[in-house]
Amino acid sequence: QVSTKCRGLWWECVTNVFDGIQTCDEYDSIYAEHSVKLVLTRAMMITADILSGFGFLFLVLGLDCVKFLPDEPLIKLRICLVSGVMLLLAGLPGITGSMWYAVDVYVERSSLLFHNVFLGIQYKFGWSCWLGMAGSLGCFLSGSLLTCCMY
Known about the structure:
Butyryl-CoA Dehydrogenase, subunit A, domain 3, PMP22/EMP/MP20/Claudin, tight junction
């Protein structure tokens, strides 16, 4: 075996075994035939990103130190509550997508090892998987705390 392949949600990388040089390419097209798991995981991660972005934007607008609606403290509290709900909702698809991908990688790798099959394709837990889990957990916990404290 001269090279190994490594797949992720967005990229496919090939590593030369002898010199360790790695080249990564995006998948051919987002419209190409992909598995349902891959498409759903991508959709969950994109949804989590969009919701958390809006949640943090609302959180900044709800801060007391920001000069947005300075004479309306009740509205600012409601903006913070909306931010908490959005962060809470952003954490759910993020955690689900990250964990689903991680469990799928583990199950596929275990089944290939169990059946003693080597296809030259490796699934690894990269930094993006761990950061996705940590970020989603952070969104979920901060949204929970913000929602409970504002309610």
